[in-house]
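Wed. Picked up where I left off yesterday with DUF5009 domain-containing protein. The coffee machine is broken again, so keeping this brief.
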Amino acid sequence: MTEPKQRLLSLDFFRGLTVAAMILVNNPGSWGHIYAPLEHAEWNGCTPTDLIFPFFLWIVGVSIAFAMSSSKADPSTHNKTIFRAVKRGLTLYFLGFFLAIFSKIINAIIDHRSIWEAFETVRILGVLQRIGIVFIISSIIFIKASEKAIFKTLIVILAVYWALMTFVPVPGVGYANLEKETNLAAWIDRGILTEAHTWASSKTWDPEGVLSTLPAIGTCLFGILVGVWMRRKDVDQATKVSWLFTVGLLSVIAGLLWDLQFPINKALWTSSYVLYAGGLASIGLALCYWLIDVQGYKKFTIPFVVYGVNAITVFFLAGLMPRVLNMITVTQADGTKTPLLVHFYATCYQPFFSPINASLVWAITYVLGFYVLLWIMYKKNIIIKV
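Structure written out below (tokens, as returned):
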């Protein structure tokens, strides 16, 4: 997208903080030893970790409003802008698909099997895939619809998704429910994606599945509406801060109230979850905006701005690196072979910390290691735009 003329340092900081947190929770030393706040909720409910992905999609929405507003104002550029958005979204999708299939193809080659076998069990959807799909649809809506229409679309999405998940009977079950394997979204995932192409940890449902992509679009539209407001030049900074805090607080309250009937649930991306997470994101940006852009406290922002300007790049590399390193094996004294990453963790971390602290220190090291790479890129003004 074209570089926005108007830019918020607080938004870059907030994006970088979110991506760094995403990498932290995605890369523990041991999945069996994780502090509770760094884990996802078992099903209903919300931990700090459950807020990271919706925060990022919400930020994508804010960024769309900043990056595409000039194109939106000029109808002659609409088709060109939409084409670029589709191109970027498809790139994100295929980056995610590459991460999903990379190890499978390499293992097939090593085992002298057909690489086409990898496609038989590859996960079709995922985090980057969802970002790409949501980006395309939300960008088109932003370019083609007025702010009032976008708000109405958000409301309709949340209401329709609630109605579908609450009242539509699930074939084979006979009644609507929100349990892991018998809810409508899970049934659709099995029908469209098939169990061979869903999340490997479940096989019967996908947290980034087909139907739940609908409310994920709602999260991005929420961000777009905030971005439109934050770009306004006829509103002073104090009003923007007050408005963001108010909208955020009201949205959190609405989400908690809706939670009583339609539980907050990340895996299902429930409508109450959209409001709750979007509200907290609004409060978070309000705080960042007030500290950084209004009060001028900017020195502490650099580490996370460094993460924010190459957000997708570092997320992709953070997903690719363990896949590559786990293909390299180390022969132990007893003749067994251990993946390099596992061997390094067992040798350099586990002997010096308790299991849960070793896992955390490993994750922090991972974040700091990528910070060094991103700092070098930042100083050399290397920004890889997907």
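Quick read: The two ends are 9 Å apart (CA to CA).
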